[in-house]
């Protein structure tokens, strides 16, 4: 069953179509990796799914509900979606624990004690239990990004959106975050992730979608899209990735 269905999405900025009648379907428990050059529409697609950008045309369905309907309350929808950005976006004046429990307490109206128990359990699972009382500036980039993912998980989302979550990290810290995403896949979390990590996309994704000029040009299993692409534009993109030593 489709958890997420995007049909004919169009989004323009200044008369330029960043999404151009894009279609995407994501089944429950599926991991879909979005690849493509910068400006191909990956981040805009994720922002539209999370209702951070208003569509110019098309529909987005989550669990069969048209969440792109202007009458839909965006905050209600976002309670079912976890989104993690490349820039962490942790509140610097709050401890790790308070960053994680903020939304469960104030949006989902959970009690402080219950929210903190859940947060500490999640932190323990990712090896950051000892950092609960630390502030973001005392954490490495990899630790901050893992906290950002835990913060999204604390809302018990149906869908996780991950936007280039390793691109701001030093190479030696990337592995910490990728291990966490592998664990989420093993737990059955439905994820759509935009990434430049082709090797990781090959390993963790059930489906890879190559975006170009706001459209899904090619999609399929990782071994097909990354190993034997059928579209000339996909082959050109991957050739450049190989030349750069990133595949």
Looking at CATH, the homologous superfamily of the largest domain is: P-loop containing nucleotide triphosphate hydrolases
Adjacency order of strands in the biggest sheet: 6-7-8-3-9-10
What kind of sheet is the major sheet? 6 strands, mixed
CATH class of the largest domain: Alpha Beta
Compute the number of helices.
9
Helix content: 25-40%
Going by helix content, strand content and strand pairing, the class is alpha/beta
Beta strands, count: 10
Task: Please describe what this structure looks like.
- With 247 residues, the chain is α/β, with parallel strands linked by helices.
- The protein folds into two domains: 28-56 and 72-80 and 159-247, Rossmann fold; 90-157.
- The protein has helices at 42-49, 74-78, 96-106, 112-125, 141-153, 171-186, 198-204, 222-225, 232-243; strands at residues 2-13, 16-27, 31-35, 57-62, 65-66, 81-84, 159-163, 190-194, 207-212, 215-220.
- It has a six-stranded mixed beta sheet, with helices on both faces.
- Helix 3 (96-106) packs across helix 4 (112-125), helix 3 runs parallel beside helix 5 and helix 5 (141-153) runs parallel beside helix 6.
- The mean pLDDT is 93.
